[in-house]
Amino acid sequence: MYLNEVQYLEPSSHLINSCVEGDRHSQSQLYAMSAPGMFTVCLRYSRNREEAEEVMQEGFLKVFRNLHQFQKRGSFQGWIRKIMVNTALEKFRSKPNLYPLLSIDGLEENLQNDFSFEYILHELDAKDLILMIQHLPIGYRMVFNLHIFEGMKHREISESLGISEGTSKSNLHDARKILQAQIAARMTVASKNGS
Amino acid sequence: MKEIDKLFRSSIESYSEEPPARIWENIDHALDKDETKRLRRKYIWLMRVAFSTILALLSFLAYLNWHSPKRSAPVLSATSNNNIPTAGNKGIIRMAPASSRNSFPPRPEDDAGYRQASGAGSGIPVSVSERNHSTSEKIIENSSNKNKTARKVEDSSSQSMGSAKPPGIGNKNGYKAILTGTTQILNSKNLSLAGPCCIDKTAILSNHLIPGLGNGEKRSGKWQSQRKWAISLVFSPDFSADRLTEEYQYNNQDIQDISNRERRELSFTAGVLADYSISRRWVLRFGASTSVSNISITPFVVRAMRDNTGEYKFKLATTYGLGEIPNSFIRNPRSTDSIHLGDLASQQIQYLTLPAAIKYQVPKGKITWYGLMGIDVNLITSAKIEIEVPQPGSNVGVRESITKIEGLRKIFLGARLGAGIDYKLNHNWSLAFEPVIRNSITSINQNTPVRNFPFAVSFTGAVKFRL
Fold this sequence. Notes:
The complex is a heterodimer.
Chain A: H1 13-20, H2 24-45, H3 49-65, H4 76-94, H5 117-123, H6 126-134, H7 138-148, H8 154-161, H9 165-194
Chain B: H1 2-12, H2 21-66, E1 75-79, E2 92-96, E3 127-129, E4 135-142, E5 149-155, H3 184-187, E6 198-200, H4 201-205, E7 229-246, H5 255-260, E8 262-264, E9 267-277, E10 282-297, E11 301-306, E12 312-317, E13 322-325, E14 338-340, E15 346-364, E16 367-389, E17 398-402, E18 405-406, E19 411-424, E20 429-440, E21 450-466
């Protein structure tokens, strides 16, 4: 997990207790506190904003319905994030094979990355990168997110998604290739426009 | 490869975006519904408490009835050609010993205790007691003359009053007599008994007040005077569940997937039942009742599946059958299309039940205990699945009612087993409480992913009227 890299606000135990008791105002506060960060998580796992909103809504409903189960020893934001990821995975499992797999055979020659890390970051913002992830085939997207952002190993990913470890590795490899190709294409366009 | 990982991680992890306000509005709306459900569950709990209280109350009444004052007076039966024993009619008062007070009709050996009284000739004076005893009566014998009755007097105070009585009067010898008919008896100075006797005026006067002992009833020693018909209005909350068997998997959904997303809600039954007494203990029951059974369904994704016609359709697999979702949501669906249901999904079934049961009852004063068993013929009158499909960009989803449920039968059979208690309020009316287990013998559906044999525990309350 790479939660340490993100500065999430942790709610007070008083606020959590009020939410458990069903106080709507407290629930609203908790939502406002957590929603922006969690929406990014949902966007990464979804095909588009509408799907991300569905995941977000389902996920937060689970949070409020199961808040009494939260062990106050751990990070609350980490707990919510886990619920969001699980909700996205449930959605993935409920509609397998909805998206055709892409062929990456033609991408090999586009992998030459002549652009520096800083230059890419200058040209592409987080929204662009999220859009790229969203355009990945669903299987690739799930594996990429679970490995890169949740820090899960291939064995854990294979168990979560019901696929083999080999498939997980292969999907991650392909996802990287696709993303690199997309970045390269964007950078090429940007450099041409700049020159 | 690591560079791209780092690029995405560093760029996105620190990024946050304000979600649309409608998400919270939808969550708020859903939480309101949760609150409603929670209150409903609380209501169910209160109903359980209420029923437990009623059950405890009825049990207490039964206890009181069971432990009513013991019968202490012996049996006396009287016959005469007229209500007033006279010298001419030689009215006979037969007295039976206490040992025979529960034998009905009196055994021949009890005749040894009989005394004979003649209207004016015996010379033994009759004492007429007008004490206000707490008296209850029980018919013990009919005389050979059907117009006259004799009653047994059950007097709880008779033991204690002995000392207050003059010697030779009243229940000195353990006998206590009551002559039924008219109060002319009380005025008769000619009545005499072969032994000391006490005639309880209160009991005589109450002759017309005791339920079930009207003048028009005949006492033959066998059951024949009880009214044979009774009509009951019944109502019960049903705590129902399903016994499921898997027939086949639909869309990779097995019995666990289908049953786990359904939750039984409180159901109700109301109806009219008729009881026909074929003997003092045995009763036939039949009638009609209607039941409403509700199930809530947690949201899930319905995928388009190709059916026998070759077309892709959205079918919702439930424990009742397959509900076909109209194509109004997605026209000409393909294999990759799916519909995500909202929170309001539910299914409801209504059926008419025609029960036929036999009841064995044990009357104890005002309380009657009984057990029953029988068969139900259930006719499904309506069934529907309600769904809500959330619409992107809207707070309110589209609601749809599915009435076409594949596999649902029109008729299914069931069996019932129960026990109950009936408390007689007065001559005509009584209240009954009757827990009943109703189990279906045949499934309510066929050729469906899951066959469903519902069963329910009903806590029936009834108001009964004797015809």
